[in-house]
Every structure is written in structure tokens, then in C-alpha cells.
Amino acid sequence: MIDNKAKYANLIKTEALRLGFSSCGISKADFLEEEAPRLENWLNQQMHGSMYYMENNFDKRLDPRLLVEGAKSVVSLTLNYYPEERQASSTFKISKYAYGEDYHYVIKDKLKELLYFIQTEIGDVGGRVFVDSAPVLDKAWAAKSGLGWVGKNNNLITKKSGSFFFIAELIIDLDLEVDGITTDHCGHCTKCIDACPTGAIESAHIVNGSKCISYLTIELKDSIPDEFSGKLDNWMFGCDVCQDVCPWNRFAIPHKEERFIANRKLISYSKQEWKELTEETFNEIFKKSAIKRTKYAGLLRNIDFLGD
Fold first, then answer.
1. Tens of pLDDT, residues 56-77
2. What SS3 state is found at 240?
3. What CA–CA distances, in Å, run from 41 to 34, 37, 206?
4. Is 240 annotated as a binding residue?
5. Among the options 30, 63, 109, 132, which is catalytic?
6. Nearest of 97, 100, 119, 120 to residue 170 by alpha carbon
7. Which is it for strands 93-94 and 235-237: parallel, antiparallel or unpaired?
8. Can you say how many angstroms the Cα of residue 75 is from the centroid of all Cα atoms in its chain?
9. Is 132 a residue of the active site?
10. 239 belongs to an annotated ligand binding site
């Protein structure tokens, strides 16, 4: 049985890399003891802002066996999205993860292929695929699976390629050989804390979501509070500051996923062109994009708030 656990784990990892995933690690589907008090404290301090959905399914966020009956293993995967081309620094900025096609669709397609492969090659394996749309603590599971460590900015970081990647999971009822956790390599560095334009990273590993530019420009549906005027650093959708300043991201390399290649207009538009954006052009540039989540009116709200 032990041989099969290792054999099947290696089989899954090999196929994951063939499908284009950057890395794959495995951990035991169990209760996340360390994360439980952290999550409870974060919620009690209202650091989730108006993301009230974070208050739901507390137990499921901490125990994958409540999401998948008979779950034995969590297969964590990463997919690089670091772009070769970037927007000019003088324009209104979009987080790099949103340059291309909505990652939910891209990754879910790959995950379904991987699950089908497992069921075809190994047998009657039950499970579910997860891409940032269910109560799963992605970064915690990825760290437990040895794919990196959770940095002071609460992003998963690897020595090999930094942090510009998506995280996804397969939770399955197959017992697999698990991977060991890696060590933390942030050391005494505080660049992410020091650089955050709104002070959202209040201390190491404590990110006040209600102050985060990504929250303000994407999740928040009301008006952006005046206290953040002049502090959004030209970000009109999301924010990459804490990743851009991270020393480990000097090792980031461009992705090879065609579906993540940006529309030329997204890369080249000036501030004036963004201000004159029509709904028709919005739909053309962001067809199948995660930016559709904020809608045309939401993007205009962000641009108006940024001013000149």
C-alpha cells in the first residue's frame, strides 16, 4: 500500500506538470489547527471588510473532509501568470494576474483533465476541483504541501520563482504519499510591509483586507472611502506592490500559457484612453477576463477616484 501511495503521487505530479502546472504537492486532508485561531481572530477584527462571505462555512474552510466525503488527500497546484509584457508605469494599472483570460476557467479546465486522468489511470477516485471559488484556504494547503511558504504579505512564495502564480486544489478520497513543508525564507525583510501604499500589511502575516487596494478596487461595491484618496498608487484593478518589491520575485519568469496573453489595448492604453473607455470597448478588451467581475461601472468608479 505504501508503494502505491508513492507511485500514485508521482503519477499525479508528472501529469500535472504535463498539463502546464508549475508545481504540484500533496498533503493529508485534515483539520487546519494552526489556521483556525488566526482565521477567527482576523474575522473578529473585521479585517474582511464587506466580504461577508468569509464569515460563512468557517468549519469547511478548516477541514476539507467537510467539502469532500471521505477526503484523504489535498493535491495543491500552482500556475505561473507572470507576464512578459507590462503596462507602462505612467498609466492606470491592472494587477498582472488579470492581464489574460479569467484564471478560473483556464485552471478549472486543467484540473478537470487531471481528475479525469486520475480516475482513468488509478480507478474509482472521488473528488472535487477548487479554484478560488469555495471555502478552501489555498495558501495554507499549498504551504502544507511543500510548494512554498506564506510570506509576510500573506502570499505563497517560493525560492525558485517568487509568488506570481495561481493556487488551486484537487481534494480526493485517495490516500497518497504526502510532501513535507518547506522553511520560511523572508528573514528580517520587511519590504512588502514598508511599500504597501495603504498600510494594509499591518505586521508580518497580518493583512487588513479592508485596507487592501485589491479589496478597494474589486471587492468593495460601495464608494471608495475618502481616507484612501491619493493612496491607490494608480491601481485601477487589484495591486501588485507587495509582490513587485519582494526580492524573491527577481526569479519570476514569463508564463507559457497562451490564454494568459494580454489584449494589446490593455498593455498600451494611456490614462486618457482609460478615462475615455466606452462600455463597448470594455467588453472587447476584457472579454472572458476576471476584470468583468468589477463591471464597467466599477472600473469607471476606480478611474474617477484616481483622478489625474
1. 999 999 999 999 999 999 999 9
2. coil
3. 12, 6, 10
4. yes
5. 132
6. 119
7. parallel
8. 16
9. yes
10. yes
